[in-house]
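Chapter review: from sequence to fold.
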Amino acid sequence: MTEDKKSLNFIEHIIEEDLDNGMDKNDLRFRFPPEPNGYLHIGHTKAIGISFGLGLRYNAPVNLRFDDTNPAKEEQEYVDAIKEDIAWLGYQWAKECYSSDYFQQLYDWTVDLMKAGKAYVDSQSADKIAEQKGTTTEPGVNSPFRDRSAAENLDLFERMKNGEFNAGDHVVRAKIDMSDPNMLMRDPLMYRILKKDHHRTGDTWCIYPMYDWTHGESDYIESISHSLCSLEFKPHRKLYDWFLDQVYTDGVRPKQREFARLNLSYTIMSKRKLLKLVEEKIVAGWDDPRMPTISALRRRGYTPDAIRKFVETVGVAKRENVIDVSLLEFCIREDLNKKAPRVMAVIDPVKLVITNYPEGEEEWLDAENNPEDPNAGSRKVPFSKELFIERDDFKEQASRKYFRLTLGKEVRLKNAYIIKGEKVVKDASGTITEIHCTYDPRSRSGSGTEESKRNVKGTLHWVSIPHAIQTEVRIYDRLFMHESPDGHKEKDFMEFLNPNSLTITTGYVEPSLKNVTALEQFQFQRIGYFNVDPDSTPDKLIFNKTVGLKDTWAKQSTDSNKEKNSTPVKKQSIPKRSGIDEIKKLGKKYTNVPDKKRLLLKESIQQAADNVEIEELEELYGTAVKKAGTRAAVLLGLEVLLDKNAMLLDENAKEFIQKAAEDVNEILAEEGKRIKNKFNIT
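The token string follows.
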């Protein structure tokens, strides 16, 4: 087997085997067949990615077909939204098709089946038909109308079409085998009466074909070669093939194959349950940024590249599994880290006054737009005597390991000066209203003075109060608190709603954001990634939190599990692994796992680095060359520390990064080159 074929997923293996067995590559054609009864969600992106991905791989057309056979639930609004979502993801369909285009052909084929004695009109109630189906261990019972004559069936079928009967009076069933072990083969429904206007055909039809009858025949009409669907349709394959046997004459015969659908933790995928969230106003609509719909992800700030990377990383599997939502969040962090301009914003402000800064003076300081993108350039940010900083960036009294602002200690203001906490002003309730500091006027970042090179451990972001733009900030979190909100028979999924899934606060941003446009994305430095909500106006900016810089849920989950499993034991009997030991442990396997696992390891390493000192990493700079995984983990930890304080980039760190970039291990070298470029190491 060639190296290329080894890397194929099982669906691609099927296609390659078909080509090897004589199938013409020009006959390859795929389709994505959504039902227009709701908005597409993250679970659909896998099916979209598989079908359109195969189209790209084999240079084959992919149809977008709307399976619009149920006018009671389908609307043009959903059709338009689905088209917008697929185009936004970056895919282009060859033909836009509708199952409703084939209603006449399906009707004509049904007439042929009745003439051949393979379909009949059943006049029983739905309950009676269900009762006669039998069980998995007992055969079904034939309908008393199963042996109607072809003439009577044809007459009733035409009268059904002409609207002479009410819904439920009659249905059409295929005549197959009421004792088949596959219960779907026990005379399945083909048509029902439904007196509803259709979003495309209006009132032309009052009978509508069932999905199983429509699906394969639509594939055949469109010459689809491989009909790909999720695993729940595997039992339907026998019926799919039986229906095709009745109508197939020549040309490409479609082949149904199934893959595991995408299930995501802390998420529900049921359209019915998502609709309930909308109708009961738990969320503001289908595009509420807490929803898993593609339109909601777009509004929240997710990118097509991040979603496509996520789908690619998840891969194509034959077995159902649940993907941790943190992988999706990691993919958007990785993408926005490369693309999003850095800006300064304060979302929980407290006033900081630099007492020795000249009254009425201001400066415009240089600030880098994106250290990951050398071509992103820089901008000017205003600096003045009065600033906003984050309230949790100051403690009146703090431990030795607290590296943010406190009384008597120094920190650096990002792109600006070193300041020292002097005193605080409090209101009558004891809440701090102002922090008074002094600054070193010769310590301005980038000035080249000895004072500017002083090594202080903390760096804070800020905004100048006279120049700041007030903004509404919507902090979104996961909509559900349980990783499997839909997996409890005894409890309703609504019981797991997160009461803190949306927090709205007033923040302040730097003036460079005055003229932003809807959906523009930014990194609020030291906070997370945000984008401009479409509700924004020139007079009122609104930002949505896309994702934090790190996964805070991992820690919450760990803490929660500790509480659940806790028993009265001596504290020292549960040794806690230090940050540096965690980095060493994770590094051992970093270069030897699949991409999906490596992405999760990377995030864990970055989290562990929060509790590491530079001196601990320096001891590992000399790790043996053969231990590429450990060196990669140290490199990622070093990046975290340098993001906090670029002054830690000394000659030893530069040499370590340079060697990593030149390493023979591709994974280590890739990370080394990225970090080398990020910090402009020559």
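Two observations follow directly from the output. Confidence is low (pLDDT under 50) at residues 558-575. The chain is about 30% helix and 20% strand.
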